[in-house]
Structure formats: C-alpha cells, structure tokens
Predict the structure of Tungsten-containing aldehyde:ferredoxin oxidoreductase.
Amino acid sequence: MLANDPLKRVLYIDLSTKRFWVTERPELFIQNIGGTGVASALLEEECPPEIEPADPKNPIIFAVGPANGLFPIASKTVSMFLSPHNKLLGESHAGGRSALALRLAGYGAVVIRGKSDFPVYLVIDSQGVKFRDARGLWGLTVSETGRFIREREGGSGLRSILRIGPAGEAGCTYACVVTETYRHFGRLGLGAAFGYKKLKAIVIVGKRALPVNDRKLYKETYDEILKRLQEAPSLRKYHDIGTAVNVLPLNKLGALPTRNLRSTRFEEAEKISGEYFAENLLGRRLACAHCPMACIHLAALRTPYEDEPYFYKTTFISYDYEPIYANGSMLGIGSAEGILRLLDAIDNLGLDAMSTGVVQAWATEAFERGLVSEKDTLGLKPRFGDVETYLKMLPLLAQKANEFYAALASGVDYASQKYGGQDFALAFGGNEMPGYHTGYGAHVTHLTGSRHSHLDSAGYSYDQKLSPEEITPESLAQKLFEEEVYRQILSSAVCCFFGRSVYDYETLAQCFRLSDFDYSVEDLKLLGEKILKRKYFFKKKRGFALKKLKIPKRILETVSPHGKLEEAFLRKALSAYERLLEDSGT
C-alpha cells in the first residue's frame, strides 16, 4: 500500500478503561478492501457468537474505503455491530462528512469496545481520542446535542458529529445515529448500541492529505467518472426532485404500501409526492462530502409561534422516499406538512424513520381490531391519517412509557408476538418493511438480503423490468445473488449506491489500483462472494436460517403489480438463494 496511507490503520477504543491505541493492519485492507469488507472481518474477530446486543463485548465498528475522499459520490461510512433489533448482523451506511473526516483523521476503521460507567462522547482526531463527560447531555434531543458539541468543540478542519437522542439512550431497538443533522445511520439499531455503551456522540476531525500513486492517471480517472455521473439520467432526477420522485410512479404502478399495506394506491399521493415537496416546500439542497449530485432535499417548514401573529419559526427537515412512504401513505397521511412534523420529531428523538412509521401503522390496525386498548395506548386513539395522535405517540414510544410502548420500541415482530396481529405485522428477518410492494423481487430481497433491506439486492428494480412470465424462483435468486455480491464491493469502496450505473467492476478495479490495490474484475467478484458469505455465516452462527423466516401474510393478501404473490414461489426462491450462499465456491 502507499506510504502514509491512513486506510491501513485501525483505531481501537475501550470505553470501559478510557484507553485507545492504533494498530497498522495493511493485510486486513488488502484482503478486504475497506468499508463492508473490512467491517465484516472486524465484526467476525470482535463479536463472540454467544453474546447479546447489550453485552459490552458487542463492538461498534466504523470503516471507510479506498474511494472515500478521492472519487466523486464515494461518500459513505459503513458501521457494523450485533443488531439490537433482530440480534443478527447490524449494518448501516451513512453519508455526510463522516467518511472523509475519518480518513483525513488518519484511520481506515474504528473499533469501539466495552461500556462506559457514565455517559461520554468521543473526539477522534489524528492525535487519537479524547473522552468527554456527557452526563449533562444525556436526555437531550439530537439537535440539542449537536448544538452543544459544536459550541464546545469548535476547531478547524473537516468535522463530523455523530449522535443519538432519547430513543437510543432508552434502548429502542431501531434507534438510529444522526450525523450532520440530515444524514443517518438508520436501520437495525446502531443508536441503541450507542445507548447500551453510554456513548452519546462521536466527533471526528480530519486534517490530513490523501496520497495517490499516479497523479496524472488519478486526474484522468476522476474527470472521466465525474463526467459519466453528470451525464447519467438516473442521477439527474435525484438532484432535481430527490428520491421522493418515486412516490407517484409507485402509486401509479399499484406498489405504494398504504395504510399498513391494506392497499397499494394512495388517493392523496399527489399531496405527498416529490413534485409537491419541490414546488411548495423545498428550502435548499445539500450534498454529502465529495458528491456532485446534491440529492439531499430540505423542506422549509414554517410554524407559527403561540400568541405571536405573523411570526414564524422555520425548520429545515430532510425528506426522502422511504421516510415519506413510512410516515405518509403507510399511515394514511396525505399532508406533506404533517409528514414533516412527524419526521422532525422522529429525527430529534433519534428513531429510524422507516421502522417507526411501520410500527405505528401496525399499532393503528391493532387498535382498530381491539388487540390493544386505550389503557395500553395511555388514552390515545390512533387512526390512519391522524397526525396529532401519532405525534403524541412518538415520545412515549422512544421513552418506553409503559409495557405497550416498550413493545413497540422493539419493533413490529416483537409487538405482534406479544399482542397478536402477526398476520398484518410487516417485518422481514425482524426488520420493518421498506416501501416497495412491486412483486416477488422486492420481497425476496427483503427476506434474503444480509440486512433485510431493499438496498441489499434491489429486487424492486427487477420487478419493474421483467414480466411475471420471465421470472422463476431460481432465475430471480441468481439475479439477486449476483447483485448483492456486486454491492459488497461497492460498499467496500465505499461508494453511494446511486453511483452503481457508473462504478462497475472495471471502474472500481481502476480506482483501487490508484490506491495500490491490485484486483482484477474476477478477483472482485470472488471477493464480493467471500464478504457476502462471511456475513451470512455470521448470522447462521446465531440461529439464522432462510427456511425458518416468517413471510408476512399481508404481502400475500394485497395484490401487487405482478398479481397476488404465492408463498410457494417465495419459499422456492429462498431455497435457491440459500444454495447459492452455501455453494458459492468461496
């Protein structure tokens, strides 16, 4: 590897003893690239099979890759941990500035061990780690925490602040970590992992330079990638309208989950569409570090002050397709302003927006069916479309106000086992449903993906490209397996998945060579399989089996664009995918 390349260094932090040390591990990166590859290898090293997520031995790992800081749209940081939400592999990616800050601080990965005996936050820079007393911050919202740390730490260089809110402190299993105010390590409960360790926040400050081994070739490669990104039609729409551009097409297709997936078309979709947000509420656009796209769209929500006519508070709130689906159509809410109010509260509490919306949708139907009472809900009467009641439920959920809200704070899988209603509980491998009911591809992705996320193998895109007659369980499993293998390499680089049309295997291999990683295309395919298989066996050691997965009954009842889905097809696809994982040849 290049001399002075920070990527080869791993920063170890022990919260129990308030110690840190740095280890040079070039072979770890040569064998695993960075990002997802390195994080999964470190998780395998650090996380014993027998522990629970709240155990101090559960590590929190952050990793970046050779493309971070050098190439456009390579803007993500990967985090891995034993998930508090489903007790399996926890993996979350976030944009913003954290990846660049970590690399410029001089580290390719961070491993956080142990548990502090009092709340702390960490300051990571090129000199190491400072442990700050955070007892005065415990209980503060995400925005209050960020404001305090910015004022206290000051400083220069590229800075990133990762922090949790009350939901993470209370151990809500789908609590998230917020970074740069508008980006999130969402899904699978990194915020709860922070809370278990009494870790309120992490500040990362970077000032170093990044080396390349051929400056002329680097400039040529960079310019070519940038040109291709700027000309890609699929990226232009995300700059103009953002991912919320998906609302109307999915609604027209009959694939937009509505009112806990009782239906797939929402009669008020136009009022919560990306076009509506852009025309009526868009305040500004932002980009992650080193990204030319600026897909982060912030709405400017004006709310009047009490007893002060003509005086308004303006709050900037980020919005994307998934939060809109989960807290809009899924809850029967046809008001963009109502969705923004929910998202603002969710962000400040430090909750994952997608899981929160799906949980509240399940709770609404459970209340309607009499499975839970007003005694359980503390006098609230959740109804689809009722923004005010949902707003009141959020802090009760985040703080686990009683037994019912504590159950909701553990997700729909847990809550439905406790209160009934499993037939309409929309969880896949313990993770709440993403916003796609496009057909078999979407749900096979949700079931088989290493994170049970729509981003694992993007089956929803195959549903829209192929007719039902073209899809068999075996062919679908093969397509999704190949896609997820490729995404292991992309997320080891670490590139945003929006760049996948440009960052093919050949382009990635060329980028890696500029950082002294010599891989052929075939090498990368084999390495992608190895990383995916490592993650699968991490889960398998903890009791995971594809054949044991529950398939939500509701997805079989509600018609998709491919008609009614059959459980037998899904089971065959799961078996075919499992064979590929077990016999992948790596």
Q: What stands out?
A: The chain has three domains: 6-206, 244-406, 431-582. The chain has 24 helices and 17 strands.
